[in-house]
Amino acid sequence: MAKPQGMAVAGHNYVAEDQIWKDHVKHEIVAARKYPHNWAFMSTKYEDLVKDEYPRTVRVPIVLPKNMQVQPVTPLEKYVTVYPSIKPVPKTTAALVGWRSTDAKLKLERYGGYAKPKGGLIKQLNWPAEAI
Q: Could you name the domain of life of the organism this protein comes from (predicted)?
């Protein structure tokens, strides 16, 4: 059986759809005509809008006394001494991660191994599954 076409399609009115489309186009043309009048202030820069409200002031640089001036940067080597490493760097890139942690003094886990999981919060509180 063939599909119904034209006015035979139930609930489909081509004239009403065309009228709605014409109405949308008309509203869009009217909005485009009114846009510059209503929203032109948004296309100007903020500085141009307020330049007359705030007078431009000339700033005079302040000369600080010698004891308040920022001192030149001192090289870091003057304060920090970096000694050579205890062990040589490993040859492989896979061994680079944690290569110092094998020494007891340089151990990363100072407070013991990582805690073992004790289950979820719901299991610890003995809540039913519906409480989630």
A: Eukaryota
Q: What is the pLDDT of residues 16-42, one digit of tens each?
A: 889 999 999 999 999 999 998 988 878
Here the tokens at position 28 are: 């869009």
In angstroms, what is the C-alpha Rg of the chain?
A: 38
pTM metric for this prediction: 0.30
* Cα-based distances in Å from 64 to 57, 58, 67, 69: 21, 19, 8, 6
- For the chain, the structural domain boundaries read 13-50
In the three-class reduction of DSSP (H, G, I as helix; E, B as strand; rest coil), residue 37 is classed as: helix
* Tokens read off for 34: 């009114």
Question: Tens digit of pLDDT for each residue in 54-104?
Answer: 877 888 999 999 988 888 888 888 888 888 777 776 666 655 555 555 666
Report in angstroms the alpha-carbon separations of 45 from 32, 41, 42. 21, 8, 8
- What does the block give as tokens for 84? 């050579």
